[in-house]
Amino acid sequence: MLTRTFYSSTLFSALAAAAPTPQVPGYTNADASGLSNQLPTGPVATVFGPDSQVSAIEISVASAPPRKSSDVTGVTSHGPFSGTPTTSGAVMANATLAQSIAPLPPNPTATYYNVNGTLLNPAPAPYTPAGGLGTNGTEPRYMVNSDFDFESIALGLYQEWIELDLFNNGLAIFSDEDFLAEGLTAEDRTYIAFMAIQETGHATLLSNMLGEAAPVQCTYNYPYRTVREFIDFNQKLTRWGESGVWGFINHLDAREVGQMLSQSIATEARQQMSFRQMLGLHPQPVWFETGIPQSWAWTYLAPYISSCPESQTRLAWQNFPVLHIVNQPNPNRLSPNDTKPYEVSGNRTADPSDSLIPSDESCLNLNVTGYNCGPGITRNRSEPLSFPGKQVNLTWDAPGQYVGPNNSYVTSTSAGSPQFVAWVSQLNLTYTPLIVTGVNAGFTYQPASAVYEGDPAVNGTMFVALTDADLLLTPFNLSMINPHVVALGLYQAG
Ligand SMILES: *[C@@H]1O[C@H](CO)[C@@H](O)[C@H](O)[C@H]1NC(C)=O
Ligand SMILES: *[C@@H]1O[C@H](CO)[C@@H](O)[C@H](O)[C@H]1NC(C)=O
Ligand SMILES: *[C@@H]1O[C@H](CO)[C@@H](O)[C@H](O)[C@H]1NC(C)=O
Ligand SMILES: *[C@@H]1O[C@H](CO)[C@@H](O)[C@H](O)[C@H]1NC(C)=O
Ligand SMILES: *[C@@H]1O[C@H](CO)[C@@H](O)[C@H](O)[C@H]1NC(C)=O
Ligand SMILES: *[C@@H]1O[C@H](CO)[C@@H](O)[C@H](O)[C@H]1NC(C)=O
Ligand SMILES: *[C@@H]1O[C@H](CO)[C@@H](O)[C@H](O)[C@H]1NC(C)=O
Ligand SMILES: *[C@@H]1O[C@H](CO)[C@@H](O)[C@H](O)[C@H]1NC(C)=O
Ligand SMILES: *[C@@H]1O[C@H](CO)[C@@H](O)[C@H](O)[C@H]1NC(C)=O
Ligand SMILES: *[C@@H]1O[C@H](CO)[C@@H](O)[C@H](O)[C@H]1NC(C)=O
Ligand SMILES: *[C@@H]1O[C@H](CO)[C@@H](O)[C@H](O)[C@H]1NC(C)=O
Ligand SMILES: *[C@@H]1O[C@H](CO)[C@@H](O)[C@H](O)[C@H]1NC(C)=O
């Protein structure tokens, strides 16, 4: 009966789409008269194969390269670290040449400009315009080619390992019924399990490009209590996983590594979008996905790693103090304006929003368009999670806290007193003034800046930092913000 209702309403909209009147305002001259846009009619199928054969041969699966970790083996214990660190702080080079990178004028060779589209240089071969990197016939070497590459890919590997454990963890601790109660089916669970398996491939790829010192899987400490909080944490963790890579991928020395990495981060991007859909958020409320510096990705990730094995390769990136969004919009609320202070499951930077609010305040299982936040391909939110001009209250931790594997990293900042809130979203970095109201406390207002007209910059799961200056930075030199960062947070804008 349900099927039939659905069928006839789809048929109706298909006919409507073929109608000559414009279906989209301002879009005229859309002549569909040549189309026969109709669906098949008649009874639906009731008999399902196997009842038809196609031409095929018996073929065995070729042997494939081994994975670094199978899907479900590996470390499975979880919880906070309670021991004593045997080492402390990020791994350091023998010598450090300056406190920060000095700005320079544009590279003198960056002058190419083509006024008329004709080729300005001899072509090295037919159909092969001059230029490009790694295009002159040199054999590709799929290995990291500098300390920068090593540390970036090692960070990426720490991220792939937690994803492998995390996706499986939610499936292991919550039952089919727990998932169903939040609108996620057995097929959705199978999909999440598949995403975990994707991580075994990503971890293998990154390990191979690093060599024998590749970091291994660790033990983790997760912040969720319900399926929805698990999904919320996943959409946050994959957000910084993806953006962390966009931030460094074009700075890698080894273009070969960048090639492989982009082909794995494309699937991570799909994971992030799917977790948003499972949370009933708009899947991609932005035109561009943003990039962040490595030290930001490490700051977000480290608090969820409780311990790593003795011989683990350590990272060189900085851990910044936590910036708490006091009134972080709660995507579980039908009225996000009503979010209470600190309505999150814990006090780490990316802890998920509280899903255990009263059911008459929750948007889950609410069958009202514009308010329903159950899993869906996309959802309208009549009351937005946040909006330009919203007062955003902030508190932040002092540096010197022990975080990360074996509590062996220490949060630090080299910035002076905080004056600005930096909003990193899409292609943009926008600063708003910080109004300090007390010790490590203050507020600001969400900005209204746009990327291009029609695309407000701040939307989706995005990044905020407290800074001591409002330096002009763009996506390719954003990491120059690091010496100015006081604390780092994650904002649930839409
Ligand atoms: C660092 O310096 C020490 C002492 O000068 C030297 O023994 C060591 O080989 C250096 N390490 C690297 C990786 O260059
Ligand atoms: C296109 O521009 C190049 C470089 O300015 C110039 O040398 C060339 O003559 C132009 N070609 C045409 C067809 O205008
Ligand atoms: C080929 O290109 C690479 C950079 O992609 C460069 O380092 C190398 O010197 C070039 N080799 C030759 C033979 O031109
Ligand atoms: C964020 O995106 C959603 C979905 O497109 C939209 O409804 C909302 O207005 C956007 N928020 C802002 C601040 O532009
Ligand atoms: C971290 O802690 C674990 C568990 O206590 C221990 O097995 C491991 O050796 C420690 N790692 C380091 C690097 O100290
Ligand atoms: C949320 O707060 C803003 C600012 O006060 C207000 O404009 C908006 O109408 C509120 N939304 C609802 C649904 O009350
Ligand atoms: C965060 O919460 C934990 C557990 O409630 C507590 O032990 C810790 O002191 C808190 N940390 C900060 C910086 O507030
Ligand atoms: C949702 O509401 C609509 C209209 O009120 C109703 O037709 C539909 O059966 C409801 N769906 C569920 C799953 O309750
Ligand atoms: C969803 O939101 C869009 C943009 O705000 C609006 O045009 C559309 O009518 C809404 N759809 C429904 C079903 O409410
Ligand atoms: C934000 O802080 C201001 C004062 O600093 C306070 O009046 C306001 O209630 C706070 N808002 C929220 C949502 O916590
Ligand atoms: C946002 O980024 C775009 C693209 O780089 C740029 O053109 C625009 O000026 C930026 N907007 C703001 C408000 O910074
Ligand atoms: C970052 O790049 C922009 C150009 O995109 C430049 O205007 C700015 O000065 C650079 N910032 C620093 C600190 O070098």
UniProtKB/TrEMBL annotation:
It comes from the Eukaryota. This is Uncharacterized protein.
